[in-house]
Design goal:
Number of strands: 0
Strand content: under 5%
Radius of gyration: 22 Å
Largest sheet: none
Shape: globular
Helix content: over 70%
Structural class: mainly alpha
Order of helices and strands: HHHHHHHHHHHHHHHHH
Length: 453
Amino acid sequence: MLKNIKLKINSFFTQGHSRTLLAKKNIAASLLIKGCSIAVSLALVPLTIHYVNPTRYGIWLTLSSIIAWFGFFDIGFGNGLRNKFAEALASGQKELARTYVSTTYGILSIVITGVLLLFISINPFLHWAKILNTSPEMSQELTIVALIVFSFFCIQFVLQLITTVIIADQKPALASFFGLLGSIISLLIIFILTKTTQGSLLYLAIAFGTSPAIVLLASSIWFYSKQYKAYAPTFRLIKFKFAKPLMGLGLKFFIIQGSAVFIFETTNIVITQILGPENVTVYNIAFKYFSIATMLCNIVASPLWSAYTEAYVKGDFAWMKSIINRVNQFWLVIIGFVIVLLASSKYVYILWIGHSVDVSWKISIIMALNVIAVARFNLFIIIINGIGKIKLQLIINVILSFIFIPMSVFLCRLYGVAGVIGANFIINSIYAVIAPVQTQKLLNKTANGLWNQ
């Protein structure tokens, strides 16, 4: 029996299309890495709450969300590089691939340096205590914390391009390993802080900032001197004329990302302004718990982005259709998994957080529905992003981002935290309906107009 199981496992990873086999290996590796990442992420929550208390943890989450908005200054170059690098590899143009890498590093370094200098000049005049709806006595501390968080954000902004290159080379499991290492280091540092210091947002900012920065810097030096030496960024190949092909697709991704981040990150702002920062903690506990299903979905979807790009460049529509059939089956598995998460949520919250934070059954139900919609959307939008036919997605994102704020505020005032999650569910359900329709049109070569742009 063991021999038969071994043979089946061996055939699973050795038989089939080379592109599919690479995806399978990445999914298997990602399951292990993401499983560890989930465990570390879940362990970080009670440890951090214990270190700074639930209200300060909510303040930290909201501040981090605001800083994350500055990710817009990527202007879509990251995703533009991902597709263009994959296309260059698929056509065997190594020098072109290196030019795309060098140009992206050059442009983003210039942009983020300017943004950092601007932030340093205006930060002393920002009333963070008011922005975060907290005590005025915390104003000076929050100004320093915001500067530290933003500075590390800018460092990671450029360094994380190594993960884009690795993902574009269809090795997302390797890229996700960097995030796991950063989280483990953060966990260790915060554990030490709980034993040696009193709760401090300043120390928390340093812990969460230094860990990923160190990992990304070390990874960049290692891979660009060895495995990816042929694509290592160089001043010689920074060619601003190549910004246009990167920007052509990248700008669309920028607008899509910007509106998506706006919708996601403003959730914390709406909650903290209407209900107080302690309710941000309630929201994020439910979000992190049910995000286990989202992470599982992304583990499967992530290796397929660049694989779809390669298949589309080579005209391999038959392979893409076969993968979509499996994706539909996998979504049903996700639904079952979310139902299990929902049924056990009350017990898990108590084991995980204890009684310091109460997450209602209503919040868990609507979060479960939201995650199912997100999973459906994510599994199909990957192929649309890989092919680059994203104009329809762009238009929908922009329209929905204008609708989201008034809708979330209205529902938050009526139903509290559950209302804000409900607004997210409505938005994600619209995506979940449209993305599969566009995917089928593209694969059947019947897409016209916006469906094919």
